[in-house]
Amino acid sequence: MPVTQFDIPEKYSYQNGFDNYLESEAVPHALPIGQNSPQKPPLGLYAEKLSGTAFTAPRHENKQTWLYRILPSCAHPPFTSCSPPPNESYITDENKLHYIPNQLRWDPFDDDSKEKKDWVEGLHRVAGAGDPTLKQGLGIYLYVVSRDMDEKQAFYSADGDLLIVCQEGSLDIRTEFGWILVRPMEICVVPRGIKYWVGLAQGKARGYALELYQNHFVLPELGPIGSNGLANARDFQVPVASFEEDHGSTASDGKYEWRIKVKFNNGLFETRQRHSPFDVVGWHGNYYPFKYDLGRFNTVGSVSYDHPDPSIFTVLSAPSERQGTAVADFVIFPPRWLVGEDTFRPPWYHRNTMSEFMGLIKGGYDAKKGGKGGFVPGGASLHNVMSGHGPDVESYEGAREGELRPQKVGEGSCAFMFESCLMVGVSDWGLKHERGVWGEKVQEDYSEHSWGGVKVHWKGGKAE
Ligand SMILES: O=C(O)Cc1cc(O)ccc1O
Ligand SMILES: [Fe+2]
């Protein structure tokens, strides 16, 4: 079911469509007509170009936006490194990733510390691959956020596009392009370089995020499915321009009041400036943040026999240079009818060349037990390149013996997967949380518990 669109404050207004060339004016005539950079842009604004691809990228991939703002982004003193950074996610040398073939599963990530964490502090890298300096790879994050970012603060990542999967609590996100509300069962993508502020729309918030160091998310090809299906383009929502006038504040200590934090090669830097970065009065282009309600996903599946590949559940895909091979696919497992005849209906046992990081937004997952020590909302699992996995013994035996009537699975549930062609390493924090305050979350007995007791059904070559 789609997340209801009623009763939301007017500041959250959206334009619809995926990858459209859009424009938005918070004040009429903020955008120049017929050109991008007139001698004097309208209304005394500065014209600033923000590119998301090389200038010369092919037309169908080219991404850029023209921003018309009160002051240009460059007006700030040099950045300085934040030391110590607010958490270990931002340390590059000390925070090496561990590449291990074990199946891993984590209990729900909770932060019981008394200290409240804002977005920048609450974002923890659990896994990753590649290198932002080479624009190759990805980072996988868990966040638990318990307070708004301070006023007059903004954050951006130079490392990549951030896909946010909201699991609990809603995020009130102010971007240079306008406001976005992201609620549980909704996702949001904030592309590389775009400045934003994150507040809490209610209580604390928890979720997952994937940072894409290369390329951008696209909708998957539909092939024989036809021209509609899966995530439909018109259901993606893009904010409308919204700005504030704040271009001259100085803090009492004589320093400029606005703090801009940047994640740059996984390090954290800060500068202070006198003007609000949220001063964009109008913009036009195809490089912008957007959101999507996972409840609008149009799920397809087998209506005859056998369990199809999970690629039919792909919401967004970030292709690599190799056709059909994604640096990151974002895949969901929504409620759906299973009707397969003579079919083992849950996922089959498998070993994949792709790595699979999974999380659970709500409910349960048909191949894994819930409850304590199981796969539960807010928890996660990682099945790395060629690491065998599949239904746990209980789910297997149940599905093997179950009556094959039409059955709705996943009612009230939504699991998801970040699938990547890259081998994924796990951070120290992800493995041990040594420096963290969240305690040990790795389930030591995951594999034994799930598959230690798989039964022999072989009857010495005799049919059952
Ligand atoms: O491992 C998993 O649970 C994810 C998954 C689901 C599925 O339906 C088929 C393959 C697959 O990797
Ligand atoms: Fe899998």
TrEMBL record:
Pathways involved: Amino-acid degradation; L-phenylalanine degradation; acetoacetate and fumarate from L-phenylalanine: step 4/6
For this chain's UniProt record, which GO biological process terms are given? L-phenylalanine catabolic process; L-tyrosine catabolic process
Record-annotated residues binding Fe cation?
H350, E356, H389
| Record bears the keyword Membrane | no
User: Gene Ontology cellular component?
Assistant: cytoplasm
Positions annotated to bind homogentisate: Y365, H389
Which keywords does the record carry?
A: Dioxygenase, Iron, Metal-binding, Oxidoreductase, Phenylalanine catabolism, Tyrosine catabolism
Cofactor annotation: Fe cation
Q: Is Ubl conjugation there in the keyword field?
A: no
EC class (word): oxidoreductase
Domain spans labelled Homogentisate 1,2-dioxygenase N-terminal:
14-294
The Homogentisate 1,2-dioxygenase C-terminal domain is annotated at 296-457
Question: By its UniProt entry, which NCBIfam families does this protein fall under?
Answer: hmgA
Name the protein family. Answer: Belongs to the homogentisate dioxygenase family.
State the protein's name. Answer: homogentisate 1,2-dioxygenase
What organism does the record attribute this protein to?
Answer: Podospora fimiseda
